[in-house]
Amino acid sequence: MRGTAMLALSVEAHRTGCAVVVATGELDLAGARRVLDKLDRLVTEGRDRIVLDMSGVAFCGAQAMSALVRTRARAQRAGGWLRLAAVPPHVRRVFERTDLDRLFPRYPDVGSAATGRAVSPPPARVAEPGPPSQAR
Asked: In this structure, are residues 13 and 46 in contact, taking their beta carbons and an 8 Å threshold?
C-alpha cells in the first residue's frame, strides 16, 4: 500500500441508464482485483454500459490498467462499453505513454462519459520548419 487510501468503490445509476462506478483511492494490485470483480459483476448482470469515475483515484498501476482493458473488451462483446471519466492528469499521462488513451477517449466528467461526448485530443505537434538553408 502506498499510504494514501485503500480503494473504495460505489455504484450509482445514471439518468441515461448506464452504471457509474465511483473509485476513490488506489488502483494498485489489490484495487485492480476489486475493480475487475465489480466491473465483471456489472457486465454479468447485463449492466454493460459502464462509466468509471476516476476523479478520486490517486494511483493506477499496470494491473488495474490491464483490468480496464479486459473489462472494456468484455463490455463491448456484450454490446456495451466502458468509459473512464475525470481521469486525473497524473493517471492520464500513464495512459498516454502506454497508448491506452487510444482505447479510452477523454471524458472530463461523468455526464460527458454517459452521453459519449469525449474531449477532442489536442492536435499533434508538428515541428515548425527552420529557416531555409542556403546552398553554397
From this structure: no
List, in sequence order, every beta strand (DSSP E) within the chain: 8-13, 19-27, 49-60, 81-85
pLDDT tens digits along 12-64? 999 999 999 999 999 999 999 999 999 999 999 999 999 999 999 999 999 99
pLDDT at 57: 96
Stated as kind and residue range, the H or E segment containing 37 is helix 29-44
Which strand (E) or helix (H) includes residue 73? helix 62-77
Q: How far is CA 99 from CA 54, 77, 104, in A?
A: 18, 22, 9
pTM as predicted: 0.84
What distance in Å separates the CA atoms of residue 6 and residue 116, rounded to the nearest whole number? 30
65: helix, coil or strand? helix
- Residues 11, 121: Cα–Cα separation, whole Å: 28
CA neighbor of 57 nearest in space, from 25, 82, 84, 86: 25
